[in-house]
Design goal:
Elements lengths: L1 H26 L6 H4 L9 H14 L1 H4 L23 H6 L2 H10 L13 H15 L2
The protein binds heme C.
Amino acid sequence: MKFTTLKLAGLALAAWGLTVAPAAWSAEPWKVPAEESKKKNPVKADAASIAKGKKIYMERCAICHGEKADGKGASASALNPPPANFLDKKYMAANSDGDLFSKTANGRGMMPRWDIVLEENDVWSVVNYLRSLGKK
Ligand code: HEC
C-alpha cells in the first residue's frame, strides 16, 4: 500500500515536471532575489574593464544577443523567449547591475549560465560594457 502510494506520487511528480518545467521559464518575467539585485558592482567601469567586457561579450554573448547588443544575434530567431536587447533604455533602467550580473551568472532556459565559465569580476566587466552602450 505504502509502496504504491509512493510510486503514484513519483509518477505524478514526474508528469508535473514534464509539463510545467518548460513552460515555467518561457513567459514569466525574470526576477532576481532582492539580495542579488542590490549587490554593488565591485569593478570600476573604467576603460580597461569596459574593453575586457566587450571582448568577452563579442566572444560569448553576441551569437545570441547580437554584435550590437540589440538582441538580434545569429541564433536569436530560434530562441523563445528571445535574448534580451541591451540597447533598450527601459530594460536597462529597470535592471540594476546586480540584476544583470545575477541573470548572466545563473542563466535560465536557453540562456546559458556563465558562473562556471567566467570569473566573477569578468561578468561585472560585461555588465560595465553593457551599461557603457547606453551612454553613447
Ligand atoms: C545561446 C544563446 C545565448 C547566449 C550565448 C547568451 N545568452 Fe543571454 N539570453 C539568451 C536568452 C534566450 C535569454 C532569454 C531567457 C529567458 O528570458 O528565459 C537571455 C537572457 C539574458 C539576460 C536576462 C534578460 C532578462 O529577461 O532580464 C541577460 C542579462 C543575458 N541574457 C546576458 C547574457 C550575457 C552577458 C551573455 C554572455 C556572457 C549571454 N547572455 C549569452 C540567450 C543567450
